[in-house]
C-alpha cells in the first residue's frame, strides 16, 4: 500500500511510451515556458535559449539589470513549480514546517 504522506512522484517514461527521459524533460520544460507571460518568456529565451549578453538583453527589453535578474529568478521559480507541480508545493510546505 502506498504511503499517503509521501510526496507525489512520477516514475518517468516507460519503454513502451517511446519517449526518452531527456525528451520528456524537454517537453515538460517547453510547456512550462509556454505558460509564462510574454515578457517572462522573452527574458528566459534571451538568457538561456539565445544566451545573449546582459547588456544587449536589458537594452532590447528596456529594463534595468536589477529588473532583469529579478525576472530571471522569478522565471526559475515559476518554471520549477510548473514542472514539479504538486511535489513543489509539498516540498515548500515541508520547508515551512521544518523552519518552525
Count of DSSP helices? 4
Q: What is the CATH topology assignment?
A: Arc Repressor Mutant, subunit A
User: In the residues, how many domains can be counted?
Assistant: 1
The Rg value, from CA coordinates, equals 17 Å
CATH class: Mainly Alpha
How many extended strands?
A: 0
Average pLDDT for all residues? 81
Protein name: Sigma-70 family RNA polymerase sigma factor
InterPro entries: RNA_pol_sigma_r3/r4-like, WH-like_DNA-bd_sf
Overview of the structural elements:
With 100 residues, the protein is mainly alpha-helical. The chain has a single domain (19-99), classed as Winged helix-like DNA-binding domain superfamily/Winged helix DNA-binding domain (Arc Repressor Mutant, subunit A), CATH 1.10.10.10. Helix content is 69%, strand content 0%. It is built from four helices and no strands. The chain has helices at residues 21-34, 38-49, 54-61, 65-99. Helix 1 crosses helix 4 (65-99) and helix 2 (38-49) crosses helix 4 (65-99). The longest helix has 35 residues, at 65-99. It is flat.
List the SSEs and their pairings.
Blueprint: H1 21-34, H2 38-49, H3 54-61, H4 65-99
Helix pairs in contact: 1-4, 2-4
Briefly say what this structure is.
This protein has 100 residues and is mostly helical.
Using brief descriptors, characterize the structure shown.
100 residues, mainly alpha, Arc Repressor Mutant, subunit A, 69% helix, 0% strand
Amino acid at each position: 500500500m502506498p504511503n499517503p504522506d509521501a510526496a507525489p512522484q512520477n516514475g518517468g517514461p516507460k519503454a513502451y511510451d517511446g519517449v526518452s527521459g531527456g525528451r520528456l524533460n524537454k517537453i515538460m520544460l517547453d510547456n512550462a515556458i509556454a505558460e509564462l507571460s510574454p515578457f517572462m518568456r522573452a527574458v528566459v529565451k534571451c538568457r538561456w535559449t539565445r544566451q545573449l549578453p546582459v547588456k544587449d538583453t536589458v537594452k532590447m527589453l528596456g529594463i534595468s539589470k536589477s529588473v532583469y535578474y529579478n525576472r530571471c529568478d522569478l522565471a526559475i521559480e515559476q518554471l520549477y513549480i510548473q514542472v514539479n507541480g504538486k511535489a513543489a508545493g509539498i516540498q515548500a510546505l515541508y520547508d515551512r514546517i521544518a523552519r518552525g
